[in-house]
Amino acid sequence: MAEIERLTITLPAAMAAAVKGAVEGGDYASNSEVVREALRDWTLKRAQQRHELAALQADLEQGLADVAAGRVADFDAARIIDQGKARFAARSRSV
């Protein structure tokens, strides 16, 4: 089993009530289980955010490289909106 470390945390009353309610409702066996689950979810969310940020940074770097190399086109808002709608529709169909 993993090494266990005891922490004492302070929560606002509403959060403490939510934790206690989850235990009293039978969803979790203890307050610690609620907090562990929340931390697992938070860890996954943070990893996803980091991944999305890295992808955005790569896109920005590619865009700046394209500008520096002269690979640019005139701004056409209607074309960009149409492309965005098409991508959204394609993504919606695949989900």
Automatic annotation (TrEMBL):
Keywords assigned by UniProt, alphabetized: Toxin-antitoxin system
InterPro entries documented for this protein: ParD, ParD_sf, Ribbon_hlx_hlx
Signal peptide bounds: none
Top-level taxon in the UniProt lineage: Bacteria
Alphabetized Gene3D superfamilies for the sequence: Antitoxin ParD1-like
UniProt family annotation: Belongs to the ParD antitoxin family.
Protein name: Ribbon-helix-helix protein, CopG family
Organism: Azospirillum formosense
